[in-house]
Amino acid sequence: MKPKGSVDSPMNIGRHQSHAAVRCLGVIAGALLASIGLELFLMPHGIVVGGMTGLSALFAFKTEMRLGLFLFLFNVPFLLLQRKRIDFPFAIFTVLGLLVFSLGTVMLHPYPPLIDDQLSAALLGGLSLGMGIGLALRFGGALDTAEQAAEFMRFGIISPEWIILIFNCTILIAAGFHFGFNQAIYSVIAYILAFEAVKIPVQGFRFSYTVLIQSRNYREIQADLQRYLNLRAAFRTFPAENGEEHGILECECNRLELFRLRAIVRDHDADGKITFRF
């Protein structure tokens, strides 16, 4: 006889099914919101963002083929190549999101843009696209596999973050050559806004974060945080494998101080680890 509340009890099965249904709806809603941002705001004005979405947009403009086709073809291969490093539910929800994202852009393609002003299109399109991608991430899926592609293509001392940065800059520069300087400016605006908008569904409207800093030079970092940012960082020490003493600093930091905090940590320890707790 199985104990009450076991994993496969009807109550738990129903709970898991309802949780999966909510995640599906969240990913689908995010994909639809992102497709609206692309097809009804950005694409009609020749505004291109970064990531696989931007690469797909460039190919769609060059070949005059549907954007949805490239969104699916460029994203799915890297998801398959990284299948051993990602869990099964994430892969399923990502494929679902990409299908809805691709089909959504195809269905919305015949419709005219919602607004004619390019700056407004860049702002609203970037916001809609970023919010859609963030919403899909919040519910366990993804609409852009640029991060998986960077992990697969990483080599030498170049980190995935630098690969993504170089990749995005290349896309924006290519868009500038194709559409002109003015469109490049609008593309940069849309990209920055989309990048920031992704964080809203994932993190919520937060203005401060708990920052954890792991470094061998924690005392110097702690002193500079107090000196330059007036941040009081508590710390605890633990022995490392090589016998050196390491420490973890913990402090509260607002959005405006994040860049300077990272700079202080990198000045003292290029290998220091910075994580955020929400």
Automatic annotation (TrEMBL):
Its main location: membrane. This is YitT family protein. The keyword Membrane applies. It comes from Paenibacillus oralis. It is found in: Cell membrane. Coiled coil: none annotated. It is a multi-pass membrane protein. The keyword DNA-binding does not apply. Keywords: Cell membrane, Membrane, Transmembrane, Transmembrane helix. The chain crosses the membrane at residues 20-43, 63-81, 88-109, 121-141, 162-179, 185-202. GO terms for cellular component: plasma membrane.
